[in-house]
Amino acid sequence: MSGWTNHLMIAPIIIPLVVGAAMMLIDERRRTLKAALGVASTLVLLVLAIVLLRMADGMPLDGGAVTVRVYRLGDWPSLFGIVLVLDRLAALMLLLTAILGCAALVFSLARWQHAGAHFHSLFQFQLMGLNGAFLTGDLFNLFVFFEIMLAASYGLALHGSGLARVRAGLHYLVINLAASLLFLIGVSMIYGVAGTLNMAELANRIAVIASEDRALVEAGAAILGIAFLIKAGMWPLGFWLPNTYATVSAASAAIISILSKVGIYAVLRLWLLMFGESGGASAGFGGVWLLAGGLLTIAFGSVAVLATQSMARLAGASVLVSSGTLLAAVGAGQSAVIGGALFYLTSSVLAIAGFFLLIELVERGREVGADVLAVTREAFGEDEELDEDDEVGVPIPATMAVLGASFIACALLLAGLPPLSGFLAKFAMLGPLLSPGGTGVSTTAWALLAALILSGLATVIAMTRTGIDVFWASPVDTVPRVRVVELAPVILLLTLCVALSVQAGPVMRYMEATARSMQAPHGYIGGVSPTPWPSATVEGGDR
């Protein structure tokens, strides 16, 4: 990189930091000005994310050695200074964050920005923490950005007050503080042995660590992994997630929903760097646990999906199913499977965020506890008899028709049914496992196939039951008043899922290139590390 383009990599961190800090100085009564600044900032981040994605996609891929773009703050060597690294995976996560940020912020303009103080500042700091976590190249700054991201999410989780929201928010805070403590312990143990926290340098050193110190490094990595898996919601560490996500405001839930995928991102990044093929005696460390934990998380999430009596908790349980699917795919360890998992990550993030926003619009015209009452009627067979004076064939209002169509789209996406992107993503994951050549289909492949089929069936049953209860069995007395700024983000997210389905070929090409570069990370290591890998080529100078 050269000239002003050098600084594009740090812009996704600096812009929300500056805008969020400036909003803190503006009187809270000037919400229109704050909203305008927030929307402008988020749109700029979206444009930046698209530019960075195109830059990352243009990086040559040759024999597993991919060039990376590196930004060194203060021109310090990577071993000592702060380094930001852009590759295909980081660019993908930046774009997903920007899309969710735009959708959630626009949705909040109708109501939720008025529910409490400093909403827009917290939202910008949330984006800053997310972007920094995806771009950083060392573990210490990953911890820093994690804490920024979590601190902002604490405020967003409590935004709007209410007893249930405060209770769930405090649980969320305590659990994540415990995870942060484990993060620090794991980082300290790794640094004590390896002498560095730079991810690329750790990947260089992991293979040559003395045998007597290897157990300590692996123990530190395991503790660090537990911290990430708490955030990802892996069973039995994700018991807090459905209730927390169900109680926060819709706009907050849409942006906070990607936090579970930050844990997945960290596991994927560090596991393939430190314990991939170049990990020496530690190669493959923890892979079996990721696979087993992923399958158990799918099972737990599927049971939660079937057991839930509210749409908000259904969405929270769907987050667990998606996290379990991704963890199991990562644990499978195949490049082609990870490529499909990245496709699934993209589709599920957009679909779940859209579902969280849709839930508030659908429930706006319903009485409190309508979901529980519908389940009770179903359980005890208390059917209502049709009165002779009841109208038959009442036309569906346009608003309810749009909401119903959106609900069907969410059901297809979350269950992984054709023809939308959820089905294509699951097919892309299972294809390589079920066609391994002459070696036969492995037990892992059959287990993952069964888990995906059963979780999809559970989601179909739960979504069908919920849809019948909401739109047919207990229709609203009055059509909910839905504003354009609320409905547009839902339609945008679902339209993007449809676009993923239509453009599945180019999208999968990008995902497969991302997976190949991560499975053979010589280019990443050589591009960041002060002692480059011989086969790596580095694009761009230091900064």
In summary, what is this structure?
It is built from 21 helices and four strands. With 543 residues, the protein is mainly α. A hairpin with a 2-residue loop joins strand 1 (61-62) and strand 2.
How many E strands? 4
Q: What is the straight-line distance between the termini? A: 10 Å
Instruction: State the secondary-structure class.
Output: mainly alpha
Radius of gyration: 23 Å
SS summary, helix count: 21
Structural overview:
The protein is globular and about 70 Å long. Helices cover 70% and strands 2% of the residues. It contains 21 helices and four strands. The protein has 543 residues and is mostly helical. Strand 1 (61-62) and strand 2 form a beta hairpin. A two-stranded antiparallel sheet has the order 1-2. Strands 3-4 form a two-stranded antiparallel sheet. The longest helix is centred in the N-terminal third of the chain and has 32 residues, at 163-194.
